[in-house]
Amino acid sequence: MVEIKTDAALEAMREAGRVVARALAAARDAAGAGVSLRELDEAARAVLTEAGARSPFLGYQPSFAPTPFPAVVCVSVNDAIVHGVPDGYRLRDGDLVSVDCGAELDGWTGDAAVSFIVGTPRPADLELVKATGEALDAGIAAATVGNRIGDISHAIGSVAAAARCGMPRDFGGHGIGRRMHEEPHVPNRGRPGRGFPLRHGLVLAIEPMLMAGGSDAYRTDTDGWTLRTADGSRAAHIEHTVAITEEGPRILTLP
Predict the structure, then answer these.
(1) What is the pLDDT of residues 182-196, one digit of tens each?
(2) Which residues are recorded as binding a divalent metal cation 2 (predicted)?
(3) In order of start, what are the domains of the chain with their CATH numbers?
(4) What CA dihedral angle connects 208, 214, 215 and 218, to 10 degrees?
């Protein structure tokens, strides 16, 4: 069932979104050569604790996962696409890092992700992050009353195709509200004019994941969580929680 949120609910989700933005900023600020992925998790966790927010990631165990997720952020490095488990790996100069974070505050949830480069960037990584951000921007621009889910999917997929990037077909965005994952599913490819109609009060997590090698193939690590590109190429993941409103798309996970 798809829940259409009231304007009061959108305001509450905006507050949860602010917490997500602060947690992502804290993780990014903590990142640097020699810093462990667990330290990024600790930085984000401190923000959630201070805000009185709960992590929808910590302890989450969907049907595909062999164990509950052990952290408040996913940290995916280099060829990892999404769902990376923060561990003792220490970041190195030039690493491409994607951090995904959620927060539940007063019964409402926000979810967002950022991608960035530690230290000296590779030009190809800068292009990949830029293309991923442009795919997200295109998807958000299509999130307007009167459009359909397929319009968002088509906008994202068109940018990825133009950049000659692959995307994992089985993963995409989703509805969000009282829970982190709600209906409808938001594929990162699709046909315009198809799918669920966009109405005022519908809230979606829009999240392109681009893979530089151009292939859509991926594999799952032995941890049962981390998805990696099958060809070893780099990946980037950028996400916002977005409300569809009569005034246009409203990003709820900005600072």
Answers:
(1) 999 999 999 999 999
(2) 111, 174, 207, 239
(3) 7-251 (3.90.230.10)
(4) -50
